[in-house]
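Encode chain A's predicted structure.
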Amino acid sequence: MHPRRLLSFVVILLVLTAGYFLATWHQERRDRQEREARRLVPVKEEEISAIRLRKKDQEIRLVRQDQVWRLEKPLQAKADQETVRSQVNLLATLERDRDLGELSDPKAYGLDQPALVVEVTAGDRTHRLKVGQATPGQLGYYVQRDDEPRLYTLNAATKDTLDRPLEAFRDKALFEFAPEKVSKLRLVVGPSTLELEKTPAGLWRLSGREEVKVRKDRLESFLRFLTLARVKEFVREPPKEPQLGFAPLPTAEVSVYPAEGPPQSLILGGRREGDYYARKEAQGELFLVESEVGQRLLGLPAALEDRRLWSGEVSEAAKLTWGPPDKPWTGVKEKDAWKLTGPEGQEVRQPAVRLEAALIKLQELEYDRLLPQAGAARKEYLVEVRDGAGELLFRLTQAGKADKDRLTVRLERGGKQEAALLPKTGFEQWQADMARLTQPADKSGGTP
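Encoded structure for chain A:
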């Protein structure tokens, strides 16, 4: 192609491109101007520092202090931050539905005594929206802005979102702490009191019962649960005190002691239709929490004691022996697989993930209680876990049946020998899982 003709095409392309971008810029500018014209509250979201909702029987005032929203009226308390932020965003982007022109008679549209007045403060300016009666068909509401002599409409869904009740703005979090920063926990259930303290090593010990090993995972799971627990409902008209279940003793009380800051407490009373009455202080405001909160509190003492048969690290296991003591199976870890050898020389290879899953299930087994003696001498089943150097990590020997539901077992772990009662069902299920692993893998890599 001739250079002069090519240059002409380039010039045309540049002109068309410039025209396209110029037209797009003008259209975007026009759209932006139209959106600005439709906005009812001409402020930026980050500039809003206070919100006031006035209704016929109530006034709600929210104020932002150091980036935290608080309720000032009708009570003083921390606000629900997410709810207020969504309200702020709604107000900063609020648009009218229709512009009905000049407003000549506010009374005709319910604007002389509006059902809702919203005031938004940004800097030294305050904007006011009056929301009057519903439009024909109940699809919207008449609105007046800043006493301007002009009538607008707002769709019904947006009005309902603006007109949130006080309860929507209240902070419903029961606790506010970082679980990893907790140094102490106190739990009172009826007349019994438990106090737990975190050691410098990051473990937990039960004060006065140092011989009891505490389940760190369950306690920290409980702390995480508390940070997520919420008030279900604030009780406006409390029933008489005897019906609340706080006297003479509350149902339960938990106090959390963060490393920094004052302790935080929850006092549990009686029940109402499955939920629990609760307070944060002895004479504090009454509210309801869901039944799960009470169940977790009441169930914690029984769940705290570490009754696992074996609580070692699965990654340390390199050799596993299981089965009748005279005819056991043996598994040896080889990189990403385990080689299983049977009592008659059978050999089966299983992916490492299958044996790791079996060891994790072994960790989940818990005894009912320890026994003062080692139990009967006969041995019906053996489980033995060793590390790569051949050192014993864990040994279990089934010594007989205590009754139809429990087994007597002898345990050796950490150089200590003990006897315990073990629920029969869980252990037999584990044995069945191990028996399936001794079957040759099918072509898809699974077991029959």
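The longest strand covers residues 125-134.
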